[in-house]
TrEMBL record:
UniProt name for this protein: Protocatechuate 3,4-dioxygenase subunit alpha
Annotated Intradiol ring-cleavage dioxygenases domain residues: 39-67
UniProt-recorded Gene Ontology molecular function terms: ferric iron binding; protocatechuate 3,4-dioxygenase activity
Protein family membership: Belongs to the intradiol ring-cleavage dioxygenase family.
Bilayer-spanning residue ranges: none
PROSITE patterns (alphabetical): INTRADIOL_DIOXYGENAS (PS00083)
Species in which this protein is naturally found: Pseudomonas protegens
Length: 188
């Protein structure tokens, strides 16, 4: 008996990303500890056209640098008012906005320390598999020693940096498709 492999398919124009109750513009709640920050941006393709059906899934540590996950065994406090996760759909022009807290540093491999960052999964029509990237904060002193950021060519690091344009407000865009300005995405 010969079995034919199932073909891979991209997410089509009628695909609805489920669990909409996880969509949250504000990842914080009353009592969340840490510096609140707003991050805005736009998802565009390689031609600069907005991608109006994207969704960003955000994962991050709390202000103390601890993830709300059983594998995070650090002796740091959990914040009972911060989940560290949310989904942010874009609007009709590919724009997004969410409020969160600036995370603390987290341990990296071989005793290194990772700079404050948000892990972002990008879902959109045309992607067979979601894309994985990070948001770092421009001007953060810990960026200089971050082991993952150090692996990214210097001329490409800017695609991972959210830039402050006002107190507590950062701008960061997602650029899809192979131009020199394309956001850096990671294999995992």
């Amino acid at each position: 008996m010969t079995l034919t492999a199932t073909t891979s398919h991209t997410v089509g124009p009628y695909y609805h990303i489920g669990l909409t109750w996880l969509n949250r513009e504000d990842l914080t709640e009353e009592g969340t500890r840490g510096e609140r920050v707003a991050i805005t941006g736009q998802v565009v393709d390689g031609n600069g056209n907005f991608v109006n059906d994207a969704m960003l899934e955000v994962w991050q540590a709390n202000a103390a640098g601890k993830y709300r996950h059983p594998e995070d065994q650090q002796d740091k406090p959990l914040d009972p008012h911060f989940q560290g996760f949310g989904r942010v759909p874009v609007d009709a022009e590919g724009r997004f906005r969410f409020t969160t807290i600036k995370p603390g540093t987290v341990p990296g491999l071989k005793g290194t320390t990772q700079a404050p960052h948000l892990v972002v999964l990008v879902f959109a029509r045309g992607l067979v598999k979601h894309l994985l990237t990070r948001i770092y904060f421009d001007g953060e002193p810990a960026n200089a020693a971050d082991p993952l950021l150090a692996c990214v060519p210097e001329e490409r690091r800017g695609t991972l940096l959210a830039r402050a344009d006002a107190a507590g407000h950062y701008q960061w865009n997602v650029i899809l498709q192979g131009t020199d300005a394309e956001t850096v995405f990671f294999d995992y």
